[in-house]
Amino acid sequence: ALAQDEYKKIVYTPFEEKCGCKLVVETGNSVERIAKMDANKANPVVDMAVVSMADALSAARAGLIDKIDTSKIASFNDLYDIAKDPNGDGMSIGYTFYATSIAYRSDKMKIESWADLLKPEYAAHIAWPNVTTNQGPPSLYMLGLALGKDTPDLAAPIEAVGAAKDDIVTFYEKSSQLVQLMQQEEIWAAPIGRFTWAPFSKLDMPIAWATPKEGQTGGMNVMIVTKNSKNRDLADAGMGQQLLL
Could you tell me the pTM of the whole model? Predict the structure, then answer.
């Protein structure tokens, strides 16, 4: 939802001109999109969606999506190999990579490690991503690295965040919430995806992008098509238009 004006100019309007159709665009986080597809699986109201790799895998396992017909996508062979079939099941195509790190007030704090976010003097000034968001699990993973306990169950970082839950300002579900919180100085820092960096960089205050010693993490956003879509041809064409970005 952060870039709808740009998407309208680059993707939506050109596509409508090509297809002679009317796009209905819905925003929301990845989990919300999958939930809507599941709720309407008997009579789909969504034709194509953009989600995280993890949610695409969940949707495939739940029988909500169809295999991608790559022959319908003119630019398919131009993609990075890793983006052609991200989950190895033919059910999604990658269209963007993104980094996940920490946006923070460089005049208020110093971030050298992911664990710095939970320091007593900082914890009451941060927002942490809800575990259901795309940034939730990656942020927990990086915190686990910082704690020296990076087991797959993420038990140690979950425990650490839980211990600080009464201090943490909010567990956010949408990145768009954070800019206002930062502007109002309710928070000093939050783990975010790089795709949400632009509005932070425009704030009239010193905001930095952290490069913690443990590194940054990230992921790939992918496109999927709904099983039994009523407009499958347009969904395939829409993926091609999206890749023009």
Answer: 0.78
